[in-house]
């Protein structure tokens, strides 16, 4: 039977002010997945990494997506999946979205492109629901579409692909775990109108800056008065990293997804590399291991790297 191998990008959700609606795909890190269409209806998941994620299909982020697609299409076939996970779970870099989006994308290729991109997002959101308790598409959408995406609506799925501005992305992942479900629990349920007005201005400014490739406008719109003040307390040295990054010339940045990773946008690669070194040394100084990534925006989303019939 047919099998393919795919490469799935990490994603930075929210892009600071666009909680649950904005996201971008980046080239580093990425997951790989091998997936085979099988004659029997079983869905078999295996990981080659050390993260000890559940492999029972109904409890696995990729598995639940495949179950939903199988049910929807009344399939007699099943899938055998091998996941090579490099995006650490709980990093805030879209690890669960990579598994969910990868499974939806690969299944669709193996089945002859029966589903639209919006349907892939719809099915992949079941994986996010399993991982975090909530269906959100801000990691899934850029993972599938590539580039920067706006989730105009997740029910019904309405995704807008935005322009890719000329920026670099630097991200640091301090090795402390922040579960998305916990990071959502602590958020305020109500916001004041005056805060909403500031946030709307920033989101609109950010989208306009992205569309016009206006880097100063992007920089001054990367400001979040609703989520960051609450969540940043979960991230060691968040304020130091942000202040120093701006001093080093970052356009702006903040928490990647639900954290603990922190990302910054820069106008050139050299600045991004200097910030990466600074970020690492801040964590070295307090004895916290960290991983740093310097990347540009990934414009393709998930891609096929091998295909066999
Ligand atoms: N928008 C989601 C959140 C992304 O911030 O909770 C989770 O990766």
Task: Give a structural overview.
The chain is an alpha+beta fold and 309 residues long. The protein has helices spanning 61-72, 95-110, 117-132, 140-145, 180-185, 193-212, 215-221, 228-231, 238-247, 269-285, and strands at residues 3-13, 22-38, 43-47, 78-84, 148-154, 157-162, 168-174, 252-255, 262-266, 290-296, 303-308. The strands form two sheets. Strands 1, 2, 3, 4, 5, 6 and 11 form a seven-stranded mixed β-sheet that branches. Helix 1 (61-72) links the parallel strand 3 and strand 4 (78-84). The longest helix is centred in the middle third of the chain and has 20 residues, at 193-212. The mean pLDDT is 96. The site of L-homoserine (HSE) has 13 residues, from helix 5.
Structural class: alpha+beta
- What is the fold-level CATH name, i.e. the topology of the largest domain? Ribosomal Protein S5, domain 2
Report the total helices: 10
| Tally of DSSP β-strands | 11
Globular, elongated, flat, extended or rod-shaped: what is the shape?
A: globular
Low-confidence parts: none
Intertermini distance: 6 Å
Q: Tell me which CATH architecture of the largest domain applies here.
A: 2-Layer Sandwich
Number of domains: 2
Mean pLDDT: 96
CATH class of the largest domain: Alpha Beta
Strand content: 25-35%
Order of helices and strands: EEEHEHHHEEEHHHHHEEHEE
Bound molecules: L-homoserine
Strand and helix layout:
Layout: E1 3-13, E2 22-38, E3 43-47, H1 61-72, E4 78-84, H2 95-110, H3 117-132, H4 140-145, E5 148-154, E6 157-162, E7 168-174, H5 180-185, H6 193-212, H7 215-221, H8 228-231, H9 238-247, E8 252-255, E9 262-266, H10 269-285, E10 290-296, E11 303-308
Parallel strand pairs: 3-4
Antiparallel strand pairs: 1-2, 1-11, 2-4, 2-5, 5-6, 7-9, 7-10, 8-9
Bound molecules: L-homoserine (HSE).
L-homoserine is lined by residues 13-14, 19-20, 92, 136, 138-139, 180, 183-184, 257-258.
């Amino acid at each position: 039977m047919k099998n393919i191998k795919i490469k799935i990008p990490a994603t930075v959700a929210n892009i600071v002010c666009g909680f649950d609606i904005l996201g971008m795909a980046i080239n580093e890190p990425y997951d790989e997945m091998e997936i085979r269409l099988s004659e029997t209806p079983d869905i078999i998941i295996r990981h080659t990494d050390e993260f000890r994620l559940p492999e029972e299909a109904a409890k696995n982020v990729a598995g639940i997506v495949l179950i939903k697609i199988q049910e929807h299409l009344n399939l007699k076939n099943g899938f055998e999946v091998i996941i090579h996970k490099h995006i650490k779970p709980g990093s805030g870099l879209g690890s669960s979205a990579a598994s969910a989006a990868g499974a939806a994308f690969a299944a669709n290729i193996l089945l002859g492109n029966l589903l639209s991109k919006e349907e892939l997002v719809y099915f992949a959101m079941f994986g996010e629901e399993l991982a975090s308790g909530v269906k959100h598409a801000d990691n899934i959408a850029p993972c599938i579409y590539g580039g920067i995406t706006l989730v105009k609506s997740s029910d019904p799925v309405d995704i807008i692909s935005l322009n890719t501005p000329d920026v670099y992305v630097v991200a640091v992942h301090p090795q402390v775990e922040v579960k998305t479900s916990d990071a959502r629990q602590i958020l305020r349920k109500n916001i004041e109108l005056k805060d909403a007005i500031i946030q709307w201005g920033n989101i609109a400014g950010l989208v306009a800056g992205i569309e016009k490739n206006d880097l100063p406008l992007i920089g001054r719109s990367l400001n979040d008065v609703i989520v960051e003040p609450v969540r940043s307390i979960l991230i060691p040295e968040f304020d130091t990293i942000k202040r120093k990054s701006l001093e080093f010339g970052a356009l702006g940045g903040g928490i990647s997804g639900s954290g603990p990773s922190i990302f910054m946008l820069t106008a050139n690669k050299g600045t991004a590399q200097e910030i990466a070194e600074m970020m690492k040394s801040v964590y070295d100084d307090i004895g916290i291991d960290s991983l740093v990534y310097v990347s540009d925006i990934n414009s393709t989303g998930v891609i096929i790297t091998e295909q066999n019939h």
